[in-house]
Automatic annotation (TrEMBL):
A single cellular component GO annotation: GINS complex
Cleaved signal peptide residues: none
Source organism of this protein record: Nesospiza acunhae
Subunit structure, interactors included: Component of the GINS complex.
Gene3D superfamilies for the chain: 1.20.58.2050
Protein's recorded name: DNA replication complex GINS protein PSF3
Length: 229
C-alpha cells in the first residue's frame, strides 16, 4: 500500500527546497532583465523566437523565470542582468510602511516573501532594504542591515491581522481576506484556524491531546540543526 503524501514546506531565505511544490511554482515566477551578451539558441526558451537555432541578441529586454535567471546569472561573465520587480522597489516599500494591510499581495505576487528572498541571489544596491523589509520580518537573517533602512513592517503588520482573523472568524466566510494573501500567509491562516479547531475539540473532550503543528515542529528542527552545526 502506498504511503500518504505529506506536503514539504518551502525553504527559508536564499535557498530553495526542491522537494517543495510551493518552491517549484515560485521558481516559475518571472524577473525583468536584459541580455548583457548574445545568448545562442535560447530564443525559444526566452519566448523570443520560433526556432531552437535562434539566438537572443545582446541588449534584448527579457522576462526570465527565476530558475533560469539564477542559472544564467554570473557576476564575472555578465551574461544577464536582473531588475527588481516593481513591488520590491522603493515606492512599494513606502506603501507597505504606511499600511501593509491594504496591499493585495496575491495579485501582486503569490510568493511575495519567498520570491523576495530569492532576489538576494542577484547583486542589487537595494538588497539590504529588501532583506530588512522581508527576511528579518520573517525571522530569517541573511544580510547585515543597519537601523537606518526601512523597518520590517510588511510581514509583522499583516501577520497580526491574519492570526486575529484566523482566531475570530471561525465558521465565517473568510474568502475575501484569504484571496488577498500570499501563499505563505495563506498557510499561516490555515494553521491558525486548525489550531483553534483542535483546541475547541479538546475543550469538548473530543480529542485526547493537543499536539504542535508540523510548521512549528519543522521550524524547531531547523533551529536545532543550526545550533548543532
Amino acid at each position: 500500500m502506498s504511503e500518504a503524501y505529506f506536503p514539504v514546506g518551502p525553504g527559508l531565505g536564499m535557498e530553495e527546497n526542491f522537494l517543495s511544490l510551493d518552491d517549484i511554482l515560485m521558481s516559475q515566477e518571472k524577473l525583468p532583465g536584459r541580455a548583457e551578451s548574445a545568448l545562442p539558441r535560447l530564443a525559444v526558451l526566452m519566448g523570443q523566437g520560433a526556432s531552437s537555432a535562434e539566438s537572443v541578441p545582446e541588449g534584448s529586454k527579457l522576462e526570465i523565470p527565476l530558475w533560469l535567471a539564477k542559472g544564467l546569472h554570473d557576476s564575472k561573465r555578465r551574461i544577464i542582468s536582473v531588475e527588481l520587480p516593481k513591488i520590491y522597489k522603493e515606492a512599494w516599500r513606502t506603501v507597505f510602511s504606511a499600511d501593509a494591510n491594504v496591499v493585495d499581495l496575491h495579485k501582486m505576487g503569490p510568493y511575495y516573501y519567498g520570491f523576495g528572498s530569492q532576489l538576494l541571489n542577484f547583486e542589487n544596491p537595494e538588497n539590504p532594504e529588501i532583506a530588512q523589509t522581508i527576511l528579518q520580518a520573517t525571522g530569517v537573517a541573511v544580510l547585515p542591515v543597519s537601523d537606518s533602512v526601512c523597518s520590517p513592517q510588511t510581514f509583522v503588520a499583516r501577520f497580526r491581522r491574519i492570526m486575529d482573523s484566523s482566531q475570530n472568524a471561525y465558521n465565517e466566510d473568510t474568502s475575501a481576506l484569504v484571496a488577498r494573501l500570499d501563499e505563505l500567509e495563506r498557510a499561516l491562516f490555515q494553521v491558525g484556524q486548525k489550531g483553534l479547531n483542535d483546541f475547541q475539540c479538546w475543550e469538548k473532550g473530543q480529542a485526547s491531546q493537543i499536539t504542535a503543528s508540523s510548521l512549528v515542529q519543522n521550524y524547531g528542527k531547523r533551529k536545532l540543526t543550526e545550533v548543532d552545526g
